[in-house]
């Protein structure tokens, strides 16, 4: 009887380690699935020219007022993308770009539509370009040009409006 009782702590320790390991693997799978979904959004783009534009600019660092590969801000990225891919002229500032769209519901967005956010108050201060399946591309202040998930709470909480250029 004593032998069985002394194995009990070892069994509990083993079960605890297995539990912790399984929790860690679930977190990894969730992160991998977001990256896989972003890759799917890119591979499902209808415009191959848009795909090339995004991959060419991917990772370019954020620079307020920037408009080239040495650094770019969100409105500059939207301006260049809209001009080069869709031959659409946009104002320079994200706030003015938001005024130059035909508003749409999120569920009706199409590839190339614009999504606007307010992270610093009531006015629009950030813009991205919708891709598909709730993903968009933008110039992030911390990560540079990146494809991101629109359903993340940070974006849902800051979302202001979306639509296509008039």
Automatic annotation (TrEMBL):
NlpC/P60 domain ranges (all copies): 44-166
Signal peptide from the UniProt entry: 1-21
Lineage of source species: Bacteria, Pseudomonadati, Bacteroidota, Sphingobacteriia, Sphingobacteriales
Keyword tags: Hydrolase, Protease, Signal, Thiol protease
Family: Belongs to the peptidase C40 family.
Protein name according to UniProt: NlpC/P60 family protein
Pfam family, one: NLPC_P60
